[in-house]
Amino acid sequence: MGESTSDFFVFRINPYAAVILGGIVFAIALKIQFSAKKYVPWIYWFAVTMVAVFGTMAADVLHIQLGVPYIASTIFFAVILALVFIVWRGSEKTLSIHTVNNPRREIFYWVAVFATFALGTAAGDWAAISLGLGYFSAGLLFTAVILIPAIGFWLFGLNEILSFWFAYIITRPLGASFADWFGKSHSVGGLGLGDGGVSIVLTSLIILCVLYMSFNRGERRAETAKY
Q1: Cα–Cα distance between 61 and 125 in angstroms, integer?
Q2: Fewest CB within 10 A of the end CB: N or C in the chain?
């Protein structure tokens, strides 16, 4: 959803205006999230979706507007994410999301999430475009890669925190590759359904999932105080 929505706005209005608008809504979403006294599904997932959209814009602007090669932006965001993890781990002694129980840890969490989305966007485009795999083949590649932490965790006892963040990072280029495959034109290897149409469908699916979580008893029981 983040990939298709970002592309829809960036390529249809002034890209700088799109990024500014995305940044404003992103800031509003995080403000609401940090102001919430407990976990609320629609607030949390609103923040996640805006991280997805704005994180995509941040990665795309480096390439489209500034001419930074995808491999360079991939390395750049990988370094940023690694530094976030190093500082987070050094400060809090763990990277477990289950210990995000105070404002400082939540800041670390959202900075890491933002970096993963920007990294995933750059890595997905690097595989599909720079390496010439195409969107569908890149999607298959990342489908295979995301099985590594699953197999490692379930069969070989891979550390659960490492498994989580490994999968979380790969989720982004996996989703972005298939979103581009559905939305982009036939001339670049896509199905030509349009970024706008793909964005509407995926946004609708997210809304339905969030509605389900909002009224699900198990999810409701999880709505305890954040800190």
Answers
A1: 13
A2: C
Nearest in space to 173 (alpha carbons), one of 115, 123, 136? 123
- Neighbouring CB atoms inside 10 A of 62's CB total 20
Tokens of 88: 């987070």
The secondary structure of 64-106 as a DSSP string is HTT---HHHHHHHHHHHHHHHHHHHHHHHS---GGG--SHHHH
Instruction: Say what the pTM is.
Output: 0.90
- Side chain identity at 180, as an amino acid letter? D
CA dist 132 and 78 (Å) reads 21
State pLDDT tens for residues 163-188.
999 999 999 999 999 999 999 999 99
Closest to 15 in 3D by CA, of 62, 47, 73: 62
